[in-house]
Amino acid sequence: MLECERKRSVIEFLGAVPLLQRLPSSSLKKIAQLVIAKDYEKGQYILREGETGEGVYFIWEGKVEVSGSVHAEEDTRPEFQLQRCDYFGDGVIASIQQADVIALTKLTCLLLPHEHCTLLLPKSMWSADKTPDSCSLVENILHLEPIELNIFQGITLPDAPKFGKVFGGQFVGQALAAASKTVDCLKIVHSLHAYFLLVGDFNLPILYVVDRVRDGKSFATRRVNAIQKGNVVFTLIASFQKEELGFDHQEVTMPNVPEPEMLLSMEELRERLLTDPRLPRSYRSMVASKDYIPWPLEIRFCEPNTNNHQEKSPPSLRYWFRARGKLSDDQALHRCVVAYASDFMFLQVSMNPHHTKGSKEASVSLDHSIWFHRPFRADDWILFVITSPAASHTRGFVSGQMFNGKGEHVVSLTQEGLLRKASPNPATASKL
């Protein structure tokens, strides 16, 4: 029991080290098993200039002073202090130390030896072994490049879904990915709330700037701004919690729907639309003329969909989805995938009762909230049940529930969005 608690303490500590937060959780857990605790007394040298170090040292408790080269002029000799969560030493290749490192207080460091420092160089932020290009498409979409502490960069891949702008689910998924990479891996997101502020340009990279609002023993809070051209285009706040056993109940029941294997895929459904005689020829021609980009998710609608947006229909929708391909095991990634998927055909359900022949409507998401109730895998089938209980004053409201294949209620969602008749010259800069 004590050994288990120590391991959790080490993982939690390492998760607070900025250098390590960009690593896959699998790498972080391996590092926690491999580090060696080293104790030093006040005034003791940890490293001396001209010597070869043993690896990378992470300061668990205490402070050290780094004193610059003795060959420098006395008045320009650099000196600075390091404390808890800072690190020093060298990585994969042992090198001659350029400075003295001296304990200013009683000191405890965790040493990662040279032979294990390759763990600090993962192939991607989600996997130590697979490059983003070799991962599933949705995992690749959710891969971000760390720019500096608390700043990440995302892009819209050529194969990613686009609707003349950055897909809203991409903002939610990538922003949550950025937030997750600044929290120790023992804490997992349990809720998020987001606002879509401006239309995103899919030709430009997106900077995700994370504000570490709070770090507590059980909970952590992060705020993320997505920035393009110097403007905040999307903002998200997320709360993370360390796993803890507690009360458990489920009142809601998964609807009785066909199994996903019995339903048509998006590709098969598109082929049917092209030949369905019940649909106007003009609509079938429009479908045929549009370039079809396969989604990074497999999607199976539970009810036959012959809605051509020319007639009213009930404000509800049910479909199964899962990521294409095998995802890495990081639970944070699976929650980011669901966040990405959550914006697909969500708000559009509130338009169903308002379609009329010849009319054209426009809808844009305004805000979005998700609560994660139980663990799940996003590369297993998940049922998304959507309803729209209300629309008023140009705003539509939708709510959703997600269930895994066992019928467990794993996620709850809400969104509000703007519903208007399409403008002949829609604004492209602002969502309002």
Protein described:
This protein has 432 residues and is an alpha+beta fold. It folds into two domains: 2-119, Sandwich (Jelly Rolls); 124-432, Beta Barrel (Porin). The chain contains seven helices and 20 strands. The protein has helices at 2-15, 25-34, 137-141, 168-180, 266-275, 281-289, 331-341, and strands at residues 36-40, 45-47, 55-61, 64-67, 79-82, 87-89, 100-103, 107-113, 145-148, 151-154, 187-196, 206-215, 219-228, 231-242, 297-301, 316-323, 361-372, 382-392, 395-404, 409-421. Helix 1 packs across helix 2 (25-34), helix 4 packs antiparallel against helix 7 and helix 5 packs across helix 6. It is elongated.
Brief description of this entry?
The protein has seven helices and 20 strands. The chain is α+β, with helices and mostly antiparallel strands and 432 residues long.
What structural keywords apply?
alpha+beta, 432 residues, 7 helices, 4-stranded antiparallel β-sheet, Porin, Acyl-CoA_hotdog, elongated, 12-stranded antiparallel β-sheet, 20 strands, RmlC-like_jellyroll, hydrolase, Cyclic nucleotide-binding domain-containing protein, Jelly Rolls, 2 domains
- Assembly status: single chain
For the record, what CATH class of the largest domain applies? Answer: Mainly Beta
SSE order, as H and E?
A: HHEEEEEEEEHEEHEEEEHHEEHEEEE
**Helical run tally:** 7
Specify the CATH homologous superfamily of the largest domain. Answer: Acyl-CoA thioesterase, double hotdog domain
Question: What is the count of structural domains?
Answer: 2
Radius of gyration from the alpha-carbon trace, in angstroms: 26 Å
* Structural class by sheet pairing and helices: alpha+beta
The CA-CA distance between the termini, in Å, is 56 Å
What CATH architecture of the largest domain would you give?
Beta Barrel
Domain Cyclic nucleotide-binding: 19-90
Pfam families: 4HBT_3, Acyl_CoA_thio, cNMP_binding
Organism: Hevea brasiliensis (Para rubber tree)
Protein name: Cyclic nucleotide-binding domain-containing protein
